[in-house]
Specification:
Length: about 80
């Protein structure tokens, strides 16, 4: 199971906007190519489930169970 890096400054997280809101889409394969514990790019401990509710991860930026963003943004 691949995890994602919760560090918003990690290059594995890709910023995009929807309207005026900033989101960060985690690049799980970029930071965790082997299903490890630490991000290969910045060394942060990887998240393996939604940090808010514990639900399984999806491919997007927002948990489909609780609606919270996986990676916090400094804006939005």
């Amino acid at each position: 199971m691949h995890g994602f890096c919760p560090n918003p400054n990690c290059p594995s997280n890709h910023a995009y906007t929807v309207g005026e809101e900033l989101f960060m889409k985690p690049g799980k394969e970029e930071c965790d190519p082997v299903g490890g514990t630490y991000c290969v790019l910045c060394g942060e401990v990887l998240e393996k489930k939604c940090p808010s509710c514990g639900a399984p991860l999806n491919e997007g930026a927002v948990c489909t169970y609780c609606g919270n963003r996986y990676v916090p943004c400094s804006q939005g």
